[in-house]
Design brief:
The protein is an alpha+beta fold. The protein has two domains: about 80 residues, Ubiquitin-like (UB roll) (Roll), CATH 3.10.20.30; about 80 residues, DNA polymerase, domain 1. Helix content is about 35%, strand content about 15%. It has a five-stranded mixed beta sheet, with helices on one face. The longest helix is centred in the last third of the chain and has 17 residues. The radius of gyration is 15 Å and the shape is globular.
Length: about 160
């Protein structure tokens, strides 16, 4: 077992993990943050995407011990005080989800995209989300949601409510 420190959704955790444990498993099993979903477990579907120091990573491929000292954001940490993040709100308004299994990965990937590129074109949105798969929805609603979120963030000068 290896001791490590991990900050998840703004809260610091002192953990002891086995070297073989994956970040997704630690988030789900140790911290009980089940919004990080395991789909393909090969890094292909994007359902396990979290933001590590602001960058999207596949938590199903990431050994937890490599995240020692990292700042991780999961879907549970995105809403502030019960107020949806503009990307979450836009997904709801644009009907960009059905079963919801892939939604956390799409949302966190979109958050990163909009931080890097506040005014992406539809093609740039499609390219940024290409590593996330959905079996239920047409991707059109997801692209519309990211565009809506970009406009909402632009109206709020690039900031989500409550400093998100």
């Amino acid at each position: 077992m290896i001791p490590m420190t991990l900050t998840v959704n703004g809260q610091s955790y002192q953990l002891t993990v086995e070297p073989r444990w994956l970040l997704a498993d630690v988030l789900r099993e140790q911290l009980h943050l089940t919004g990080t979903h395991l789909g393909c477990e090969h890094g292909v579907c994007g359902a396990c995407t979290v933001l590590w120091d602001g960058r999207p990573v596949r938590s199903c491929l990431t050994l937890a011990v490599t995240a020692d000292g990292a700042n991780i954001l999961t879907i549970e940490g995105l809403a502030a005080e019960g107020i949806l993040h503009p990307v979450q709100e836009a997904f709801w308004q644009e009907h960009a989800l059905q079963c919801g299994f892939c939604t956390p990965g799409f949302i966190l990937t979109a958050v990163h995209l909009l931080q890097e590129n506040p005014e992406p074109t539809r093609e740039e949105i499609r390219e940024a989300l290409a590593g996330n798969l959905c079996r239920c929805t047409g991707y059109q609603h997801i692209v519309n949601a990211v565009q809506r979120a970009a406009a909402a963030l632009s109206d709020n000068h690039g900031h989500a409510p409550s400093g998100q």
